Please model this.
Amino acid sequence: MKIGIVGYGVYIPKYRIKVEEIARVWGGNAEVIKRSLKISEKAVPDFDEDTATIAVEAARNAVKYAGINAKDIGAIYVGSESHPYAVKPTGTIVAEAIGATPELTVADYEFACKAGTAAIQTCMGLVKAGLIGYGLAIGADTAQGAPGDPLEYTAAAGGAAYIIGKKEIIGEIEGTYSYTTDTPDFWRREGEAYPRHGGRFTGVPAYFKHIYNASIGLMQKLGLEPNDFDKVVFHQPNGKFPREIAKKLGFNPEQYEEGIIVDKIGNTYSGSSLLGLARVLDTASPGERILITSFGSGAGSDSFSILVKKEIERKRGDTPTVEEYISSREYIDYAIYAKLKKKIKV
Amino acid sequence: MEKVAVIGIGLTKFGELWESSFSQLFVEAGTKAIEDAGIDGKDIDAIFVGNMSGGRFIEQEHISSLIADYAGLTPLPSTRVEAACASGGLAIRHGIMGILSGFYDIVVVGGVEKMTDVLTERTTQILATAAEQEWEANLGMTFPGLYAMMARRHMHKYGTTREQLAMVSVKNHRNAVHNPYAQFRFEISVDKVLNSPMVADPLRLLDCSPISDGAACIILASKEKAKEFVDNPIYIIGSGQASSSISLHGREKLTVMDSTVNAAREAYKRAKIEPKQIKVAEVHDCFTIAEILAIEGLGFFKVGEGGKATEEGETEIGGKVSVNTSGGLKAKGHPVGATGVAQAVEITLQLRGEAEKRQVDADFGLSHNVGGSGGTAVVHIFSK
Model:
């Protein structure tokens, strides 16, 4: 039985702040930061936007794209590290907003930046087992970066929703493979406002090790080589890391450039690799094969191989694309940013 | 002084060794040195190990016992020696004294530091404990700040240029390309140094040695005992150690590191040689200015002329004196407790003729290890 993506939808808030503006406030060298992080601006949520509203917007787009009745969704999992409530699910808000209640199962996921892909895997299992017809997996975040921390240049907001099922799929998921260890490279304890990280330790022993092993593991499992893929997408905390890992895995720019959008919207954490995948799906042709590997600190990676199906040409067109969200933008200064991100305490 | 033989050497790769623990590092370096010397555990009489701050970096004190235990060398006497970044050099001196006193015939001298288990801010804080807490660290001073003041004064008094400081880094990176154990095996340009992020004016990021993990080990033996095991011993013929005020404000001059001058004087006197006979030296370039101060304080160049000598290539491989052929602290890496011992490893390789693409023609070599901003200096002189 083939299972895969029935539909997907994205959402990116329209406000942007440029690297130059953040650097101006904190005395950073914008040119050096832009060059080293390969990022120019990031998306900022409005005062009343949070992970729940972003997840709802993306879910609505996904349901519309899929052309299904929301009542047929049997499970919703929302992956995020910025759930608005510590206790009380984001998923129920989404379920109610799209009209999927009450006959379904819902839970929130957290695995740093990879909770969204973990949600996809759960939905795959439930669909494959015949327990549900459709599962909705969402990765969304309003990422936190402490003022003045290098993270502030990249921590952004956005999300993507994927409906997993077996009927009228636009992309068959050929297989998935995960690589997980206990590696404390980035964390936020209960009650803390901002995450802390191990600096350079987030690189080689965390991001690179896990994405590399998950991607290699998937290719070995499916008997595929780098040149079997038309497009590849990786978690993108900045513009440098995904390009480096892509090269290390043996992919060329034609394969990986299209899926890198972090330079225009920043790191949307749980939304990051899923938005990159959406960007690629927006223009993908039937028959193309896509590799996507997420990364979540703590640490783990989920890798998927997706074969684009004919159905994609019929279904696309009625929902906003990633490019449309990227180009619908309004720049703000640090003062407005501080207000919107509630960094000004009153 | 009576000479003491170096009969074995061992090094780990220096760098961010995320996959290696403190114990794994010193066991690796120690095993290599013991194998290199062709000795057995039963031949060893004692262990001396240099380590700056196991207690703060990895919450482990009692390093001496840990090392004897993990190296499988219990019940041998094991002693930890600490003098901040000069801990390794000082451990060598204690090994030498152990042999020359007649207490021991063969000793293992190790140096080890695991610095990357804590965040960078914490590392800086831990390193700052080598400065005087009451008058320097507690007032916000860190090592880049202290060395920046020395650099400023040297530039003001002798016209040492910003470019000359950069050339120290450029040379040491060039040397490290040929050292398989070095942390940074790539070249950099003067321009790149001058445009790297500012740390403490005038010192920029690429003027500073990195945070590193690593271990080094040498096996010392009495000259009689050495002959039983190896036919290529290198000898330590001079040793000097000196203290100075721990804080910078206690020094007579900012432009002369008097502990270096005094330690060098003792070492040359014991070795009965002159500075000009040294053709290869590993000096303590924790910051670029520190190498300039070192090559002046060790008597290779007149005070005030270290920058010019560097610019003119006199410290390059094959120059008047080849300085930091290993890449130095800047490019080889600086796991603080290991550095002094790693310097001895490089000089031994050079005098054995095993330094490959960085080989220098030399009869005498020197190692120079500094603690803090110059509160301690240790100098050793080696010969074939």
Remarks:
- The CA atoms of residues 239 and 262 of chain A lie 6 Å apart.
- DSSP finds 13 helices and 14 strands in chain A.
- The longest helix of chain A spans residues 203-222.
